[in-house]
Amino acid sequence: MHFALSEDQRILQRTTDEVCAELLAESPAADARADGGALRARLWSKLVELDLVGLLVPEHQGGAGGSLTDACVVAEALGRHIAPVPYVGTAIAAAALLRYADGPEEPLARLCGGDAYSVLLDERLGHPVDTATVAFDWVDGARGVALSPDGRATVHELADADPIIDVDPLHRLCRVRAVPSGAAFGEGARRARAVAWTGAAALLTGLADGALRQAVDYARQREQYDRPIGSFQAVQHLCADMLVDVETSRSITYGASWAAEHAPIDEAERVAAGAKAHAGAAAVRVCETGIQVLGGIGVTQEHDAHLRLRGAHLHHAAFGNSDAPLMLLAGRVLEKV
Amino acid sequence: MDLRDSPEEAGFRGRLCAWLKENVPADPEPAVLAERWPYMRAFQQHLYRGGWVALSYPEQVGGQGLGPMEEAILSEELGRAGAPTLLPLGHLGRPLLSHGTDEQRRRYLPPLLASEEIWCQGFSEPQAGSDLAALRTRAVRADGVWVLDGHKTWTSYGAFADFCLLLARTDPDAVRHRGISAFIVPLDAPGVTVRPIVLANGDEEFAEIFLDDVRIPAANILGRPNDGWRIAMDVVNYERGAVETGYLPKFERYLSEIAAFVKAQPAAPDRATLRALGEAAAALEVLRMHCLRTLSDRVSGAPPGPESSIDKLLMTAVEQRLTALSLSLLTDTDAPGNAASGRAEWFDRYLYGRAGSIYGGSAQIQRNILAERLLGLPRSAG
Predict the structure, then answer these.
(1) Cβ neighbours, 10 Å, residue B247
(2) CATH of the domain at A302
(3) Is residue A47 part of a domain?
(4) Domain B7-87 belongs to what topology?
(5) What is the pTM (predicted TM-score) of this model?
(6) Domain limits of chain B?
């Protein structure tokens, strides 16, 4: 057993961080709310160019043949920078569904080339039982990927796309004409769900880590009573609690990144469920606490802290809302005794 | 990342599981410490004779010469097998291993690891709790002996112990942290008085130790004179980890017992109960993965440092969550007789859980450490 990122994965982390820092220095994430998709497109094409969008797609299907851990490293960095791209929805959730639930091959290759595929969910952002009606991480012109009633992933043109005003303007939802979807939940679909949970957990970990860094930087500089506010224990302890949440999210998320891909399906689901449940709740807490440390500026549109908190809530709710992983875990515990 | 067992690890796990299947006692762990102590100690000694204790200690001192990953596997499988709680004293061998002389290691480590001799930790004093460096117990050198005078408190298992790893001030003129040394004190030495402290749950797990003109051989100093603070910090960093102290399997057992209770109810559990169970299970998954990550760092050669405060806060939170959950479930179910039939035992565990955020450095001290040493926030003025 060995639990650590490889040297290559550390380079991947640095690369993604640098790409985000560079592009988001020119125009901040908040711009993506009203620039007609320009920033999203720039960042996305950069990720495509670096072969990061096709990480989960095997090489013989046109992808980069990376691991879920690689994809999580990227997702975490994107979360850290609040990057307004549909990475979790397209490069992780949709790709996993196509790959693990016997989807058609061609869309996988097109996805690697940058075509947008939104994963299709139900009204509560859960995995649909009979019809899928909401495209998650939707962008203009995206196709949808859903689990069809026969248990295979299928691709759909999205008719009557009707964007939804939801909590997170950087990761959009869109109501689409209902697509029949399956209750048949075979092993492939279960694994795809575990991968989606883990991907969301990685993004959530990144959102939280960014909030922690912002809070700590601010607490070191901002002075009140002639001292940096970071020298007050009341503030220090808020930051320490954020650190515990971030590091524990990282532990369970990277553990899940291995398990969801390689472990027997029951274990894969169990660890991924733990990651999604913990990283989701932790990210919401950390982003809230981050705003508290920032003080007044944290609750304005001038700061991006609210965008983090928005992203945390959206991804905490994604893929079966925040309860689905908990119900799975409870079921397993009761089964065992 | 590769969380699969290597062939050696898989072999180890297989042998361990087979052994546990034959050797985990069928009778339940007694609720009262006076009965639980001999039960725990007997299992620990049995486990040692089976070759499953001190896995990552060198063979010369009674260990198994394996690595941290085997410790992780042990922890996992003990939990799965519903084994008795381990004595949470395994970390006390670490300072002897790192700082002891050859002679000290030979003399003290084998019986310590075999639980033939029990050790305790004499750090806190009535005036020196969170501010450990304020300790006042003195050690003075006089013809071939050290003479100790002072008063230690909150010593876990002090009333059961044979030896105490004790901190005392050896240079009253030095800056606080610099004038402290670590000693090996036999608790049957003349002048030592041990008085048990009864905890809120009735257990006599802690003790006070009074030292009145206690003379111990000069050779009983651990490490160099006035180097005790470094040793103390090593000890607490190990103490704050979940694997060394064997808490992970204990928490797994708590969760199984809670689940068994829920399942035994005539009515199917409601959503709130399932959610709470799910959260507890998620917390255990987090703890398990966090331990694996910590141990992998250990394999790479990094001794535990200030990040062990994360482990400690996590461990405390899991224990307090589990014990509070058990109480709320027992209280809220409609089944007749629940309040009267088992709440007291869980209440004792819950009370004990409150100690988790106090001993080994309070939760507030852990947060100070994280803020200043890991996050680099300015030193606090209080």
Answers:
(1) 24
(2) 1.20.140.10
(3) no
(4) Butyryl-Coa Dehydrogenase, subunit A; domain 1 (1.10.540)
(5) 0.95
(6) 7-87, 119-226, 240-374
Query: Quick one: B119-226 is in which CATH superfamily?
Result: Butyryl-CoA Dehydrogenase, subunit A, domain 2 (2.40.110.10)
Integer Cα distance of B164 and B118 in angstroms: 9
Q: Is A216 on the interface with B (CB under 8 A)?
A: yes
Residues A245 and A249: their CA atoms lie apart, in Å, by 6
Are the C-beta atoms of B114 and B87 separated by less than 8 Å?
no
CB B33 within 8 A of CB B85: no
ipTM of this predicted structure:
0.96
DSSP string, B213-229: EEEEEGGGEESSTT-HH
Give the HSE-up count for residue A190: Cα atoms under 13 Å, Cβ half-sphere. 16
Q: How many CB pairs under 8 A join A and B?
A: 191
**CB distance from A232 to chain B under 8 Å?**
yes
> Residue ranges of the alpha helices (H) in B240-270?
247-264
User: Across the interface, which of A237, A257, A332 has its CB nearest the CB of B281?
Assistant: A332
Instruction: Please identify which residue in the block is written with the tokens 């709310």.
Output: A33
Token pair in block for residue B373: 């040493």
Residue A303 belongs to some domain of the structure: yes
Q: What is the largest CA-CA distance in chain A?
A: 67
Q: Does A124 touch chain B (CB under 8 A)?
A: no
Q: What is the C-alpha separation between A230 and B380, in angstroms, rounded? A: 8
Q: What value, to the nearest 5°, has the Cα angle with vertex A56 and ends A52 and A57?
A: 100
Distance from CA of A278 to the nearest CA of B (A): 7
- The kind and range of the H/E element at A242 are helix A233-262
pLDDT, block means (10 residues), chain B with 382 residues = 94 97 91 91 95 93 92 89 83 94 96 96 95 96 96 95 97 93 98 96 93 98 96 87 73 90 88 95 95 88 86 94 88 56 80 92 95 94 64
With b for 16 or more beta-carbon neighbours within 10 A and e for fewer, the A138-167 pattern comes to: bbeebbbbbbbeebbbbbbebeebeeeebe
Catalytic status, residue B239: yes
